[in-house]
């Protein structure tokens, strides 16, 4: 374990654990992106004349997105997870981590809302509207992903010019 300058304090840094967290987060993101791609493929499939089948396929892929996101949340927000490691940082980092936590809640709410909307209950789904809702969800997932990887890079890998 070494000491890393951070503002006026010297904080203990376990670089090998940060590398492990970075790699775990990368694998979780890779899994989530793969699930998102499968959902995109389902959404892009032909819907007219087969709306119920289309909605069922999209709903099944959305379940996989939710499972992947849930695994990531459990890992990132766990006792020794990514967010616990980032929370020890100085400056605006803890506030940015809190925003990521709130994003998790909002993303899960959006997934559940879309899932409910995809339930056909005998009615023909409005596939154009559902595609728009799903596109908004996927865009929000990508923004969250980008914010998270930027924060990991900034905290674990970027030399901010602080003396050694």
TrEMBL record:
Protein name: Hemerythrin-like domain-containing protein
Domain of life: Bacteria
Species of origin: Anatilimnocola aggregata
């Amino acid at each position: 374990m070494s000491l890393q300058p951070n503002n006026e304090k010297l904080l203990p840094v376990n670089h090998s654990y940060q590398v492990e967290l970075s790699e775990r987060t990368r694998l979780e993101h890779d899994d989530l992106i793969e699930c998102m791609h499968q959902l995109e493929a389902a959404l892009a499939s032909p819907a007219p004349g087969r709306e119920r089948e289309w909605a069922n396929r999209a709903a099944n892929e959305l379940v996989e997105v939710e499972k992947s996101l849930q695994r990531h949340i459990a890992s990132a927000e766990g006792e020794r997870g990514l967010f616990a490691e980032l929370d020890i940082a100085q400056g605006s980092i803890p506030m940015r981590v809190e925003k990521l936590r709130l994003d998790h809640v909002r993303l899960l709410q959006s997934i559940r809302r879309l899932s409910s909307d995809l339930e056909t209950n005998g009615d023909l789904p409005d596939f154009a509207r559902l595609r728009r809702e799903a596109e908004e969800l996927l865009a929000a997932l990508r923004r969250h992903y980008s914010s998270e990887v930027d924060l990991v890079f900034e905290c674990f890998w970027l030399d901010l010019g602080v003396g050694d």
